[in-house]
């Protein structure tokens, strides 16, 4: 492990960050666990909610001079077009330290006002930030594409997953929520976002044509209650209403729900897909996913589950039927998924990728045998 660094994570208070501000908090905790001194600058108070309370020790809400006075040896800035990235770039230039940018495709889906602010930022300091950046950590393939379109060189862009807590999301957890709802047997779980549409209807259709005909399988849709009525009608129309359950998205209950799933479905390409898949795989749950750049970046067909053709109801049905009829393969896929989560998705692995970019020209910290040898040579 390299010698400890002082690392500043710079967040713009008016930029809506991925995960409601949890990414810089989780990353700061993971970097601190690897021995670094870390501070998060600029995080608004309302993002320090109860689930984030254990991570607040690294937070400094002020920006500007506070970053420089911290004397960082490496800087991580969120969103290259934000004023925070400009501050990070200025400090990085003055101190001659690496600047690493974090980009997420979800930031392009914000309000007209936010897009206007980004347009201003691109015109005023976009070029300066690009020149100052050591690397861009794109949280999905779409972020890599948008970074390329804005002028970042391909060799400076890495695709890095958002990160998952491997202790919180793991196999073998119990679920009080499933017990309260009397949902047992085999479970096909799926995220149901507010903008769910045709792809989720195709999943219900595939479920109805396969395991939905059996009494020992349930489809559990986890998400926004506003989307539920439409899909209740869809399930009833296909004759599986009693086998389809709608649960509100609750981050505290989610690990248990996933760990008790037999399969996890990802029928829609959306910005939350990488995180959803990472959490399911961390729980040792194989996946049935619809093909997309996000899925192809991490999932291998017949290694972590099965991948269906996008928009193809028959392909999705065949994948679901094949996965349901293959218990030995599901066991193999689940074990491979957990290994992938440990190697790529866990916060320690993600922090190591950032550490590598931030630690340019830094020597590894000497281990105990090196220190003893040094003492002997100088005595």
Characterise the protein shown here:
The chain is of the alpha/beta class. It folds into two domains: 6-163 and 346-358, Rossmann fold (3-Layer(aba) Sandwich); 176-344, 3-Layer(aba) Sandwich (Rossmann fold), CATH 3.40.50. It contains 15 helices and 13 strands. It has helices at residues 22-33, 65-69, 83-95, 112-132, 141-149, 176-180, 198-209, 228-237, 254-259, 273-282, 293-298, 313-324, 327-345, 347-358, 368-378, and strands at residues 6-10, 37-41, 59-60, 74-78, 99-103, 135-138, 157-159, 186-192, 217-223, 244-248, 263-266, 287-290, 305-308. The strands form two sheets. The protein has a seven-stranded parallel beta sheet, sandwiched between helices. Helix 1 links the parallel strand 1 (6-10) and strand 2 (37-41). Helix 13 (327-345) runs parallel beside helix 14 (347-358). It is elongated, with a radius of gyration of 23 Å. The two termini are 26 Å apart. The model is unreliable at 48-54 and 368-379 (pLDDT under 50).
Would you kindly provide a brief summary of this structure?
With 379 residues, this protein is an alpha/beta fold.
Reconstruct the topology from this structure.
Elements: E1 6-10, H1 22-33, E2 37-41, E3 59-60, H2 65-69, E4 74-78, H3 83-95, E5 99-103, H4 112-132, E6 135-138, H5 141-149, E7 157-159, H6 176-180, E8 186-192, H7 198-209, E9 217-223, H8 228-237, E10 244-248, H9 254-259, E11 263-266, H10 273-282, E12 287-290, H11 293-298, E13 305-308, H12 313-324, H13 327-345, H14 347-358, H15 368-378
Parallel strand pairs: 1-2, 1-4, 2-3, 4-5, 5-6, 6-7, 8-9, 8-11, 9-10, 11-12, 12-13
Helix pairs in contact: 1-14, 3-4, 7-12, 10-13, 13-14
């Amino acid at each position: 492990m390299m010698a400890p660094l002082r690392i500043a994570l710079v967040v713009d208070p008016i930029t809506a960050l991925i995960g409601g501000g949890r990414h810089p908090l989780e990353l700061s905790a993971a970097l601190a666990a690897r021995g670094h001194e870390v501070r998060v600058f600029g995080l608004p108070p309302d993002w320090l909610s109860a689930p984030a309370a254990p991570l607040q020790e690294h937070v400094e809400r002020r920006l500007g001079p506070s970053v420089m006075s911290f004397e960082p040896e490496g800087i991580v800035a969120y969103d290259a077009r934000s004023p925070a990235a400009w501050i990070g770039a200025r400090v990085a230039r003055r101190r001659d330290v690496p600047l690493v940018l974090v980009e997420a495709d979800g930031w392009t889906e914000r309000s007209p006002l936010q897009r206007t602010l980004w347009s201003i930022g691109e015109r005023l300091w976009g070029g300066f930030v690009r020149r100052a950046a050591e690397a861009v950590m794109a949280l999905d393939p779409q972020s890599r594409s948008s970074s390329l379109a804005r002028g970042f060189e391909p060799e400076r862009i890495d695709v890095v997953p958002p990160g998952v807590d491997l202790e919180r999301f793991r196999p073998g957890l119990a679920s009080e929520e499933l017990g309260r709802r009397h949902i047992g047997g085999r479970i096909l779980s799926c995220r149901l976002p507010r903008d769910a549409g045709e792809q989720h209807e195709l999943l219900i259709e595939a479920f109805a044509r396969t395991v939905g005909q059996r009494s020992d399988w349930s489809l559990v849709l986890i998400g926004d209650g506003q989307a539920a009525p439409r899909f209740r009608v869809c399930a009833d129309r296909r004759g599986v209403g009693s086998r389809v359950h709608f649960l509100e998205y609750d981050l505290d209950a989610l690990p248990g729900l996933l760990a008790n799933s037999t399969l996890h479905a990802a029928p829609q390409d959306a910005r939350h897909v990488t995180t959803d898949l990472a959490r399911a795989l961390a729980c040792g749950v194989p996946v049935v996913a619809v093909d997309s750049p996000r899925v192809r970046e991490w999932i291998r067909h017949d290694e972590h589950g099965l991948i269906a053709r996008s928009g193809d109801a028959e392909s999705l049905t065949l994948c679901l039927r094949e996965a349901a009829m293959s218990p030995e393969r599901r066991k193999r896929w689940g074990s491979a998924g957990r290994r992938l989560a440990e190697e790529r998705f866990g916060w320690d692995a993600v922090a190591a990728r950032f550490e590598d970019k931030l630690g340019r020209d830094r020597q590894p910290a000497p281990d105990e045998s090196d220190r003893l040898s040094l003492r002997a040579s100088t005595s």
